[in-house]
Amino acid sequence: MVCTACIPPTCAPPVRRLKPPPADRRLRPLHLLPLLQPIRADFLHSFSIHELLVLLPPPCRHPLPQLHHTDTGKEAVGVVSAVGPGVTSFKVGDVVGYADNPMGSYAEEQIIPASVAVPIPHAIDYITAASVLMKGMTAYIPVRQAFKVQRGHTVLVHAAAGGVGSLLCQWANALGATVIGTVSTEEKVGQATQDGCQHVIVYTKEDFVTRVVEITSGGGVHVVYDAVGKDTFQGSLACLMLRGCMISYGQSSGSRPDPVRLSDLAPKSLILGRPGLMHYTTNRDELLQAAGEVFACIMSGVLQVRANHVYLLSEAARAHKDLEARRTSGSIVLIPDSQRL
Ligand SMILES: NC(=O)c1ccc[n+]([C@@H]2O[C@H](COP(=O)([O-])OP(=O)(O)OC[C@H]3O[C@@H](n4cnc5c(N)ncnc54)[C@H](OP(=O)(O)O)[C@@H]3O)[C@@H](O)[C@H]2O)c1
């Protein structure tokens, strides 16, 4: 995706132009590129499966190729190729990313408001930036805002080898916590261990509540970071210590039927939070603070970004199927076909 223009927020909503780039702008392989060549990378993440596709009428279970013309995808990195009138904070050639809004990043080109564009530091390559902006800021919220992890905490991270999960484990570990991670397959255990999990539970084979009770000698954990949702929600509450904190930030397996009964929290005086990125990036200062912490962690080596899967944009449906079949780990990046390596 290229940001064709950064327009003031008061202007028209985002518009995508899907014509291929001129031949002279097609790119050489990524590793040969100087940093500011317009390589273009789109995010893929599970919002698209779990919160968008379910809204589409059947029988279109994986209608992504047609969705190039609709509002799919909500995070991207690109090079600014034009700026709107009055925009002074960015210029043509700047590398920027955005996360969460506007929709429509499954496209070759996109127009976005300047107010959501985040400058990508020169030290961070495009694929890494495209892999981490949204996921990194999503990890920043639980660990640094909703429940601030401190040395000595014990933390349970579900889907520890997922895109956000991988970053959460690394970040909590770096902050001095004991990290327990859950994963669905043996293949994901190694990555979770490398990412700082002292204990990894294969929750498709073992009862994770029983294992957490064993690991914590019955004490439970200070906090659970849970984006799996329906399949883990009740068990997560059971893993918490007295006055523990449940941070539910997603629902990859589906939502638990709402409302959550207040009485579920009472036996241990539990705290339940459901943070969303948009509410922690309500203004430019908060947005740049969140992105800045993520970039600083990458540049200092606290966070290793796992861009484990790169697909062409035309393969988006396959990428979604792999994600849904739990065949992926770390981040997934879509690259427009004109950027084929
Ligand atoms: N609150 C926010 O503002 C915010 C922002 C962005 C994303 N999110 C949420 O954060 C969550 C993680 O995002 P992500 O980008 O890290 O996704 P991801 O890389 O796809 O990770 C999701 C993981 O969930 C696990 N999972 C469990 N049940 C699943 C199922 N039925 N289908 C697919 N995966 C399942 C899988 O790990 P295992 O195979 O190991 O179980 C998978 O790797 C998502 O729920 C997303 O909606 C929230």
TrEMBL record:
UniProt-listed SUPFAM superfamilies: GroES-like, NAD(P)-binding Rossmann-fold domains
Enoyl reductase (ER) domain sequence ranges: 42-334
One function term, GO molecular function aspect: NADPH binding
Pfam families: ADH_zinc_N
InterPro entries associated with the record: ADH-like_C, ER, GroES-like_sf, NAD(P)-bd_dom_sf, QOR-like
GO cellular component: cytosol
Keywords recorded for this protein, A-Z: NADP, Oxidoreductase
Superkingdom classification of source: Eukaryota
Subunit record text: Homodimer.
Protein name: Probable quinone oxidoreductase
Naturally occurring in which organism (per UniProt): Panicum hallii var. hallii
